[in-house]
Amino acid sequence: MHLTGHKGEVTSCRFSDTGEHIASGSADKQVFLWNTYGECANYGVLQGHKGGILEVQWMPGSERVITASTDHTVAMWDAMTGERLRRGKHHTAPVNSCCPLSKSAGDDNMFVSASDDGQLVIWDARERNPAAVIEHSQPLTSVVAAVSGNVVYAGSLDNTITGWDVRTQSAVQTLRGHSGTVVGLAMSPKTGNYLASTSLDNTVRLWDLRPYCRLSNRCERVYTGAPHGYEMNLVRPAFDKDESMVASGGADRLRIPFIEALEQRFRVVLASASPRRRELLDRLGISYEVIPSTFAEDLDKAKYAAASDYVLDTAVQKTTEVFHRLKGESSKPLFVIGADTIVVNSRGVILEKPTSRDDAAATLRGLSNAVNTVYTGVCVMIDTGSAQPHVVTAVEATGVEFGELDDAMVDAYVATGEPHDKAGSYAYQSLACFFVHRIRGDYYNVVGFPCARFFQMLRELHAEGVF
Predict the structure, then answer these.
(1) Partners of 143 in the beta sheet?
(2) Residue 442: which residues within 8 A CB-CB, separation 6 or more?
(3) Which of 108, 116, 201, 340 is an active site residue?
(4) Is 124 a known active-site residue?
(5) What average pLDDT does the chain have?
(6) Which of 76, 138, 142, 351 could connect to 155 by a Cys-Cys bridge, CB 3.0–4.6 Å?
(7) pLDDT above 70 as % of the chain
(8) pTM score of the predicted model
């Protein structure tokens, strides 16, 4: 079977409940309807959305289709005639997901949509206005209904999954554990006892929804091996009909044999919440968990002869804290990656994250017409089965030459809010690129993670037989 015809990326594809038809949604704003058997003919095209299709779902009975679109609307279609039966226009932002409300009851009128506007909207195809609107505090990326139709689960930007009672429109359950945005949900079709979720933390989690679950956080399993890319697509998971398997898509990656050997032997953990380090590590194709360090980062700078010693010791302490916290609970040997980045001005003063807008402005004025140096310390701590972990460290330095920054430029940059969580009060990979004349060294080190140096560390560990 090879189905062609869309003029844009295919973003969603579903079999009908009977298995006789397929609906595919695309960035070309169209939904194609296909026969599964025989010549697999394209028997229908649904048109009317003004934006790309983000999700397509079949309603019970396989005669109706619902679609979620970037044009802020959700629609219901007759899959036999191609007629649009309902267009929901309540949302004020792209609609990321939709699903039938009560599939087990065979109700082909009620459905739910979730949007970047933070709203869950329940629709009745027989009514003009929404049947109910549930407000969430964060943008919503995915939605799925319980088998009973009484509870809907929504994944959101705050890394959580929230269960909402449709009747009272109140939150009745919160599932926590992901360290990245939850981008896809699936309900086990046979019993409704389990929920699968995909996340930008590169894991798929299986949640136990049964009333008397023995697990305090309800997370039954954590699966790795389907990493996301920097595209951050809304990848949806799926169950097989017998609930014995879970499937999830992932991003195409650079695959290096020794990276696969690393993943097979170790539980790889990034001891940092930095989105920039995660994005850079993602490009290498490593499947890993994000477990930020709780180390206070309060080392006395005066005790260190060089800034490079200080940043490396901070990275080691952050890595050590996570390693020892996880050591007793991990079924696989640990491979913990930690890093810390600082900026040192031309006078040798260590500049970390600013404490206020005034602090950021003063820091930037001190960088004007001067060269500052960005240091990143990297620590890898490995459980090799001996009493003490195997530790490998490195420090990378990059010189960054700033042009002149007058007060107006400094004030305008600080007003953007970008400096507030950046070492040295600037982000070279973003707006600060307009201020920098040149750099001497690794660009990615300035961003927060020296990719080439880290890759060399991995190659040397592989050559030593560590993995």
Answers:
(1) 154
(2) 396, 398, 450, 451, 452, 453
(3) 340
(4) no
(5) 91
(6) 142
(7) 99
(8) 0.60
